[in-house]
Amino acid sequence: MEEEIKDTVGGVAENHKAGFVNIVGNPNVGKSTLMNDLVGERLSIITSKAQTTRHRIMGIVNTDDYQIVYSDTPGVLKPKYKLQESMLEFSEGALTDADILLYVTDVVEDPEKNKDFLDRVAKETVPVLLVINKIDLLKGDGELEKLVERWHQRLPNAEIFPTSATEHFNVDNLKRRIEELLPVSPPFFGKDALTDKPARFFVTEIIREKLLLNYDKEIPYSTEVLVEKFDEKETAIHIMSVIYVERDSQKGIIIGKGGDKIKKVGIEARHDIEKFFGKKVFLELFVKVEKDWRNRENKLRAFGYME
C-alpha cells in the first residue's frame, strides 16, 4: 500500500467515461462527509470543527463503464498565514481542472460568503452541481423552496441538489447525474485505484482527526503530523509518527498529565488505522516543537502543502 498508485491502464471499452469531479465550498458545510458518501470509503476526516481538511484528497470510483475521480478540497477562507494560503490554492486549483464542479453549501450559510470565489464558480463553463447540504436541519414549510430560489438567483446555470450527506438523502440522484455528465474518456488511474495518496498520508490524517477531536481552541490547528516510519508486514504495520506543535506550552498540553492525553490520541488513532488497513498496528507517537511552522515555507513544503 505504501507505493504510489501508477496511472497505467489496460484496454477499456470504446465508450468508457471518466472525469474529475471537484468538490468546493466554504468550511464546515459537509464537503468531506459528501465525498466519503460518494466514494463509499472514509478517505476524508470529518469533525464538527471548521478547516478540518487541509489537503486536496482524491477518491476514485471505478466500474467497467466509468471512472470518477472525486476531489475533496479545503474550505474557502481568507488566509491569515502561509498554511491557509496553500489551502486556498488547493481550492482555487480545483476550479481549473474540473470536468464537473460540485459547489457545496448548507441551509444556514450566507450565499454571499466569500463572494469572490463564488463569482468565479458562476463563470465556470463546466457543469456546476450546487449541493444544498444538511436539509434535515430545516424545520419550517417552504424553507427549502426559498433556499433553492435564492441559490438559483446566485448561480443561475447550476443544477441544484438538496441533500443530507449524513442521512444519505438524495445522494444517489446526485451520483446518477454525475455519471450522466461524465465525458467519454479512458481512465486516468489504474482501475483498482482508490486514491492518489500513499498509505502513510491516511495515517497522518487519522492522527490529525484525533487531535481535532481531543483538544480545544487553537491547539489542533497548530499541529501537524509526519510519519517517520511505516514498516508494513503481512499481518502488522509498525508506525512511528511525530506530532509537531509551534510552542513549548503546546507540547505540554498535547502530552497531558503523565502522558494521559497523548495516550488517548494514540489508542483512538490506532483503532481507526487498524480498521483502515485491516491488520494489526503498532503505533508510536512523539511530540516535537517546530516554531511557527505554519508560516515557514520550508516546513510547509516538507509537510506537502507546497511544491
Helix and strand arrangement:
Blueprint: E1 17-25, H1 31-39, E2 57-62, E3 66-72, H2 82-93, E4 100-106, H3 115-122, E5 128-133, H4 143-154, E6 159-162, H5 171-181, H6 199-214, E7 224-232, E8 236-245, H7 248-255, H8 260-277, E9 280-289, H9 297-302
Helix pairs in contact: 6-8
State the helicity in percent bands. Answer: 25-40%
Main β-sheet, spatial strand arrangement: 2-3-1-4-5-6
Give the number of helices: 9
Shape: globular
**Uncertain ranges:** 1-9
Task: Tell me the number of strands.
Answer: 9
Order of helices and strands: EHEEHEHEHEHHEEHHEH
Write down the Rg. 20 Å
Relative strand content:
15-25%
Mean pLDDT: 87
Helical/strand content category: alpha/beta
- Quick one: biggest sheet? 6 strands, mixed
CA(first)-CA(last) distance: 23 Å
Task: Describe this protein's structure.
This protein is α/β, with parallel strands linked by helices and 307 residues long. 33% of the residues lie in helices and 22% in strands. The chain contains 9 helices and 9 strands. The protein has helices at residues 31-39, 82-93, 115-122, 143-154, 171-181, 199-214, 248-255, 260-277, 297-302; strands at residues 17-25, 57-62, 66-72, 100-106, 128-133, 159-162, 224-232, 236-245, 280-289. The chain has a 6-stranded mixed β-sheet with strand order 2-3-1-4-5-6, sandwiched between helices. Strands 7-8-9 form a 3-stranded mixed β-sheet. Helix 6 (199-214) packs antiparallel against helix 8 (260-277).
